[in-house]
């Protein structure tokens, strides 16, 4: 037994060392050996730890089904030994993987089970992260009230912990919820509050997205100058980052803004550039959206035949993508 205990400690150290070195295939191999040994020795605490390690390594190597299976095994073992922190962490990570896999209802169930366990274990940071993860999933499911409730709770917790990234992320997520609910003033305020936090963190992709969101909200509020300023800053950042699809989205937003402001030539230039970027990305749905804008612009400039041509092009693209909702619209 002494030799096996020594081997178990050595395997546990090897798992952790491999994790820190990002050598996940090696980590997976050691964790599987550790699991077999823990079961042979009848050690459920090491068994739970090994299953958790297998799940982490499986996820890191792209094996989501393997990660799900390991977490599902880890949960009852952790529960049986009274390890609330371990059980909560396994459920939390399971929920995040379900979310990535598009299994939204299972993601919500796992994260909601994790929350009271995080609270019981005093893991306020995990609690805040779980709430912040739940918010966008509720939004995806169309549950706006639940999304805003959990994100507001997440925001309070992140602030109390001094977690700048968590605070900025919760504000950005809240902005998306408010925008979806048509509360553009609150959405704009949340994005503007998130911006300096992302800048402080040096998170340029998140900063660019917050700027684009602020631009869209300001446009809805009729604040043309502010919307254009935010959009142009976002555009510059997305170009620097090489994010062509997001760049195209901002160009389309600028086209819409200029069309509303009665600036048809500026709108046409933005729409044309947006269409080129969407085509370069192979994004036919995005290109169809731009064609709708070009059609509206042609009507605005009293060119009905050209407008009809754009709308027919849009319909053909929408049908090719199989989006019946957009086709009906």
How does this structure look, described?
This protein is mostly helical and 329 residues long. The chain has 17 helices and no strands. The protein starts with a helix and ends with a helix.
Give me the number of helical elements. Answer: 17
Topology order in helix (H) and strand (E) letters? HHHHHHHHHHHHHHHHH
Major sheet attributes: none
Helix proportion range: over 70%
Features of this protein?
mainly alpha; elongated; 329 residues
Topology, pairings included?
Blueprint lengths: L1 H19 L3 H18 L2 H17 L3 H17 L3 H17 L3 H18 L2 H17 L3 H18 L2 H17 L3 H18 L2 H17 L3 H18 L2 H17 L3 H18 L2 H17 L3 H18 L2 H5 L1
Describe this structure in a few short sentences:
With 329 residues, this protein is mainly α. 87% of the residues lie in helices and 0% in strands. The chain has helices at 2-20, 24-41, 44-60, 64-80, 84-100, 104-121, 124-140, 144-161, 164-180, 184-201, 204-220, 224-241, 244-260, 264-281, 284-300, 304-321, 324-328.
């Amino acid at each position: 037994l002494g030799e096996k205990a020594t081997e178990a400690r050595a395997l546990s150290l090897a798992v952790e060392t491999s994790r820190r070195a990002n050598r996940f295939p090696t980590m997976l191999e050691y964790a599987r050996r550790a699991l077999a040994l823990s079961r042979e020795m009848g050690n459920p605490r090491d068994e739970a730890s090994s299953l958790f390690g297998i799940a982490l390594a499986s996820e890191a190597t792209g094996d989501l089904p393997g990660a799900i299976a390991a977490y599902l095994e880890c949960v009852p073992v952790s529960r049986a030994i009274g390890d609330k922190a371990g059980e909560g962490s396994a459920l939390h990570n399971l929920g995040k993987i379900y979310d990535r896999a598009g299994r939204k209802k299972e993601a919500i169930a796992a994260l909601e089970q994790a929350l009271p366990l995080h609270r019981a274990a005093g893991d306020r940071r995990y609690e805040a992260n779980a709430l912040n993860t739940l918010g966008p999933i509720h939004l995806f499911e169309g549950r706006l009230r639940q999304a805003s409730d959990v994100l507001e709770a997440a925001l309070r917790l992140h602030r109390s912990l001094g977690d700048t990234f968590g605070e900025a992320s919760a504000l950005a997520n809240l902005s998306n919820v408010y925008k979806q609910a048509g509360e553009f003033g609150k959405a704009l305020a949340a994005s503007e509050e998130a911006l300096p936090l992302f800048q402080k963190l040096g998170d340029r992709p998140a900063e660019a997205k917050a700027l684009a969101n602020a631009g869209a909200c300001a446009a809805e509020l009729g604040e043309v100058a502010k919307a254009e300023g935010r959009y142009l800053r976002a555009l510059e950042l997305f170009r620097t980052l090489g994010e062509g699809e997001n760049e195209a989205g901002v160009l389309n937003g600028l086209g819409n803004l200029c069309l509303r402001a009665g600036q048809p030539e500026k709108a046409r230039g933005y729409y044309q550039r947006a269409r080129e970027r969407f085509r370069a990305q192979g994004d036919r749905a995005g290109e169809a959206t731009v064609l709708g804008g070009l059609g509206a612009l042609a009507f605005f400039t009293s060119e009905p035949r050209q407008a009809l041509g754009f709308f027919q092009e849009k319909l053909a693209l929408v049908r090719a993508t199989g989006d019946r909702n957009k086709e009906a619209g």
